[in-house]
């Protein structure tokens, strides 16, 4: 599963944003794919093993077991702050926030919104990320910085249609 998810992403991101020879790019793609796949496999093994151990020790499954097993697995497997783990954790965080908001409504902790809150969320997210990019760029993840630099700065220099189709890193001859 990790290879299925990471390989296409690494392929696109590498050819869009990384420089180097074809061999270096392919090696980078293979390393990212391997790291993602390995970490997911280690995590699943750790999580399932800890779930089984807790269930066996207590004689039954308890909902807290999944939280504890995942915390330990997350610490051991994804606790190293590197680009692969960072992306996976951020991916999960965004989905968790949505799920917790839905759960809070389902449980009655917050009222059902009268209108869809997504447009407001989209506005706040985009407003915040562009403000950070313009004024505190160093706080953003490097891959997000690269994407935003490409979209909002490199796009100001055009040579021909290839700039639209291929990563635009040529300098303007002015």
Automatic annotation (TrEMBL):
State the superkingdom. Answer: Eukaryota
Note the coiled coil stretches, chain numbering.
Answer: none
InterPro entries referenced in this protein's UniProt entry, alphabetically? Pmp4
Query: Which cellular components does GO assign to this protein?
Result: peroxisomal membrane
Task: Name the Pfam families on file.
Answer: Tim17 (PF02466)
Descriptive protein name: PXMP4 protein
Q: What is the lineage of its organism?
A: Eukaryota, Metazoa, Chordata, Craniata, Vertebrata
Name of the encoding gene: Pxmp4
């Amino acid at each position: 599963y990790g290879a299925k998810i990471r390989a296409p992403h690494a392929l696109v991101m590498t050819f869009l944003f990384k420089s180097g020879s074809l061999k270096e790019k392919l090696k980078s793609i293979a390393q990212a794919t391997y790291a993602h796949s390995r970490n997911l496999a280690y995590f699943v093994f750790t999580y399932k093993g800890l779930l089984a151990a807790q269930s066996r020790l207590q004689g039954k499954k308890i909902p807290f077991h999944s939280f504890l097993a995942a915390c330990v697995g997350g610490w051991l497997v994804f606790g190293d702050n590197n680009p692969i783990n960072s992306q996976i954790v951020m991916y999960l965080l965004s989905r968790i926030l949505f799920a917790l908001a839905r759960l809070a409504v389902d449980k009655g902790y917050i009222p059902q919104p009268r209108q869809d809150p997504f447009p407001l969320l989209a506005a706040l997210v985009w407003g915040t990320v562009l403000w950070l990019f313009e004024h505190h760029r160093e706080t953003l993840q490097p891959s997000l910085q690269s994407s935003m630099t490409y979209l909002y700065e490199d796009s100001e220099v055009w040579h021909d249609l290839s700039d639209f189709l291929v990563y635009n890193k040529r300098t303007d001859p002015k």
